[in-house]
Amino acid sequence: MPQSHPAPRQVRLFRNNRNQAVRIPVEFELPGNEAIISRDGDRLILEPVRSKNLSALLDSWEPMEETLPDIEDPLPVARDIF
Q: Quick one: which of 46, 42, 13, 50 has its CA closest to 28?
Protein backbone atom coordinates (compact mmCIF):
# COMPACT_ATOMS: atom_id res chain seq x y z
CA MET A 1 0.00 0.00 0.00
CA PRO A 2 1.45 3.38 -0.97
CA GLN A 3 2.35 5.60 2.00
CA SER A 4 2.02 8.98 0.22
CA HIS A 5 -1.25 10.89 -0.01
CA PRO A 6 -2.37 10.69 -3.64
CA ALA A 7 -4.28 13.58 -5.19
CA PRO A 8 -8.08 13.30 -5.08
CA ARG A 9 -9.60 11.44 -8.02
CA GLN A 10 -13.08 11.36 -9.48
CA VAL A 11 -14.52 7.82 -9.61
CA ARG A 12 -17.78 6.34 -10.85
CA LEU A 13 -20.43 4.83 -8.62
CA PHE A 14 -22.28 1.71 -9.75
CA ARG A 15 -24.91 -0.72 -8.51
CA ASN A 16 -24.05 -4.18 -7.23
CA ASN A 17 -27.47 -5.79 -6.71
CA ARG A 18 -29.14 -3.54 -4.10
CA ASN A 19 -25.88 -1.91 -2.96
CA GLN A 20 -24.17 1.16 -4.34
CA ALA A 21 -20.46 0.51 -4.91
CA VAL A 22 -17.31 2.32 -5.95
CA ARG A 23 -14.21 0.84 -7.52
CA ILE A 24 -11.22 1.94 -5.43
CA PRO A 25 -8.18 2.94 -7.53
CA VAL A 26 -4.96 1.12 -6.66
CA GLU A 27 -3.33 4.21 -5.13
CA PHE A 28 -6.15 4.33 -2.53
CA GLU A 29 -6.10 0.59 -1.79
CA LEU A 30 -6.68 -0.49 1.83
CA PRO A 31 -4.93 -3.45 3.47
CA GLY A 32 -6.89 -6.58 4.31
CA ASN A 33 -10.30 -7.84 3.23
CA GLU A 34 -12.58 -5.72 5.41
CA ALA A 35 -13.13 -2.02 6.11
CA ILE A 36 -15.22 0.17 8.38
CA ILE A 37 -17.45 2.76 6.67
CA SER A 38 -18.88 5.80 8.45
CA ARG A 39 -20.50 9.06 7.45
CA ASP A 40 -19.38 12.59 8.34
CA GLY A 41 -21.98 14.94 6.87
CA ASP A 42 -21.99 14.24 3.12
CA ARG A 43 -18.58 12.50 3.28
CA LEU A 44 -18.06 8.74 3.53
CA ILE A 45 -15.01 7.56 5.44
CA LEU A 46 -13.45 4.14 4.76
CA GLU A 47 -10.93 2.78 7.26
CA PRO A 48 -9.18 -0.60 7.29
CA VAL A 49 -10.26 -2.99 10.03
CA ARG A 50 -7.48 -3.01 12.60
CA SER A 51 -6.63 -6.13 14.55
CA LYS A 52 -8.00 -5.93 18.09
CA ASN A 53 -5.57 -8.57 19.27
CA LEU A 54 -2.63 -7.25 21.32
CA SER A 55 -0.56 -10.28 20.35
CA ALA A 56 -1.04 -9.49 16.64
CA LEU A 57 -0.03 -5.88 17.24
CA LEU A 58 3.13 -6.91 19.11
CA ASP A 59 3.96 -9.43 16.37
CA SER A 60 3.77 -6.64 13.78
CA TRP A 61 6.47 -4.56 15.54
CA GLU A 62 10.09 -4.84 14.47
CA PRO A 63 12.67 -5.73 17.17
CA MET A 64 14.62 -2.81 18.60
CA GLU A 65 18.22 -2.51 17.48
CA GLU A 66 19.08 -0.30 20.44
CA THR A 67 20.05 -1.72 23.84
CA LEU A 68 18.51 -0.03 26.85
CA PRO A 69 20.81 1.32 29.57
CA ASP A 70 20.91 -0.20 33.05
CA ILE A 71 19.01 1.94 35.55
CA GLU A 72 20.26 2.33 39.09
CA ASP A 73 16.90 2.31 40.87
CA PRO A 74 16.84 0.33 44.13
CA LEU A 75 13.65 -1.40 45.25
CA PRO A 76 11.57 0.53 47.79
CA VAL A 77 11.87 -0.45 51.45
CA ALA A 78 9.05 -2.75 52.52
CA ARG A 79 6.84 -1.24 55.24
CA ASP A 80 4.22 -2.87 57.41
CA ILE A 81 1.10 -0.78 56.83
CA PHE A 82 -1.24 -2.78 59.09
A: 46
Structure letter (DSSP) for residue 74: P
Of 5, 23, 24, give the one whose Cα is nearest residue 15. Answer: 23
* Beta-carbon contacts of residue 53 (< 8 Å; ≥ 6 apart): none
Residues 44-67 have pLDDT tens digits of: 999 998 777 888 788 888 988 888
Please check whether residue 35 is in contact with residue 48, taking contact to mean a CB–CB distance below 8 angstroms. yes
Q: Which residues, other chains included, contact 57 with Cβ-Cβ below 8 Å and sequence gap of 6+?
A: 51
Question: Whole-model pTM?
Answer: 0.52
